[in-house]
Every structure is written in C-alpha cells, then in structure tokens.
Amino acid sequence: QVQLVESGGGSVQPGGSLRLSCTASGFTFSISAMKWYRQAPGKERELVARITDTGSSTNYLDSVKGRFTISRDNAKNTVYLQLNSLKPEDTAVYYCNSGPYYNLRFNYPWGQGTQVTVSA
C-alpha cells in the first residue's frame, strides 16, 4: 500500500528555515511526480510546490517563490522542501503526495503531515 511519511517540521521564528522530508513507498517513486501541499488552520489545503519525476521541472505557489525549494532523491524515495525566510503566514501542516504533474486532482491517501509553526 502507498505510504507517505513527512518529517522535519518544527517551530521557528520569522526569517528562519526548515527542511521537510517525505519518504514514499508503495508506488514507483522514480517515475512519479511529487507535490507538497499545506493546510493552515481554518483554510483549505493548497498546493505549495511540485516536481517532475526526474526533477527537471518545478512549480511553486506564488507566495513561496524564491523562498521554498522542492527537490528529490530518487535513490531514497524521498522528496524535500527547503523552507527559507519563513513567515507567520507559512504556518500550516505540510503534506506530500504524488500524481500526474498536470493532473492535480489525483492524490494518494494523505499522510499525517508535519507541522510548521512560524511565530515570534
């Protein structure tokens, strides 16, 4: 079965950094696009970043461009999200998932996510 395990979240001050990891199993990671989502309290889940199977292309939510970087290590079945220059508005639970790069409707069952809290 598909399993998505996020880690690396924590509490930081504005301007701080975190590196999130997501280790996947149950599907062929190396030919699968990967995505990061986040869900803030009282808000809908939103797509933050995505990356193609080889990492050749990436795409980001406008509000995180220049601050977040998605990457992957296919040998480790792991996708990363580097979060820099964090703002309080970035506070959310961050989730990874997979699916066609241009078909964002498809997602596997969600993992538990990892909490990112940004506050002074």
User: How many beta-strand runs?
Assistant: 10
- Radius of gyration (Å): 13 Å
By secondary-structure content and strand pairing, the structural class works out as mainly beta
- Looking at how many chains there are and whether they match, the oligomeric state comes to single chain
| Biggest beta sheet attributes | 6 strands, mixed
Broad shape: globular
Summed over residues and divided by their number, the pLDDT gives a mean of 97
Distance between the termini: 40 Å
**Largest sheet, spatial ordering of strands:** 2-10-9-4-5-6
**Parts with pLDDT < 50 across at least 5 consecutive residues:** none
Helix fraction, binned, reads: under 10%
The percentage of residues in β strands lies in over 45%
- SSE ordering: EEEEEEEEEE
Question: Would you write up a description of this structure?
Answer:
0% of the residues lie in helices and 46% in strands. The radius of gyration is 13 Å and the shape is globular. By secondary structure, the chain is mostly beta strands. Strand 4 (34-39) and strand 5 form a beta hairpin.
Which short descriptors sum up this protein?
globular; 4-stranded antiparallel sheet; mainly beta; 120 residues; 6-stranded mixed sheet
